[in-house]
Amino acid sequence: MDSINQQQPEDNFKDLIGPEAMDKIKELAGSAKSCFFVSNIKTGVPASVRPMSAQKIDDEGNFWFLSANDSHKNEELSTDPFVHLLFQGSAYSDFLNIYGIATVTEDKEKIKELWEPTLKVWFTEGVDDPRISVIKVEPTEGYYWDNKHGNAVAFIKRLAGAAIGKTIDDSVEGKLEV
To answer: Which residue ranges does the record assign to the General stress protein FMN-binding split barrel domain (predicted)?
Structure first.
């Protein structure tokens, strides 16, 4: 345990398994203001990082994205399907770290299910644009950082801790197993 967590007056680690992990993944990914999609994990070349939006997180915990079938990302995934997804919801909580394996398809039914009108910015021919592909990321492991009682309580605890010079933190973190 690191020195900061040793100073905690309360336990701030909680690993989550199964449905509880799934709920936390959906909560944190759903509230995220940003998602970074990292590819080229195992190829030995520098990782490629790009912002993306998950169109859906299904009941099994899979993340679904729409992507151009001629993109660098899709090319990278064809040789190295291992990915890393990073989500951040706020400055002090709602962090989610997911590793997974990506598969790319051009499943027309899934494209229709995931389609939103704003995607026409990238796929100008609409839902039937021939360049649309689907990326499914199946999580293999994850980790989260959050707070226990909401941002307001976490902020008050941080202020109180700073005033008295003691670690009073409302954070909680742990492994996620879906």
So the answer is: 20-169
**pLDDT 10s per residue in the chain (178 long)?**
566 666 666 678 899 999 999 999 999 998 888 899 999 888 777 889 999 999 999 988 899 999 999 999 999 999 999 999 999 988 777 899 999 999 999 999 999 999 999 999 999 999 999 999 999 999 999 999 988 766 666 666 666 777 777 766 667 899 999 8
Among the CATH numbers 2.30.110.10, 3.40.50.1980, 1.25.40.880, 3.50.50.60, which is that of 18-176?
Answer: 2.30.110.10
Asked whether the beta carbons of 106 and 168 are under 8 A apart, the reply is no
CA atoms within 13 A on the CB side of 127: 11
Domain spans of the chain, in order of start: 18-176
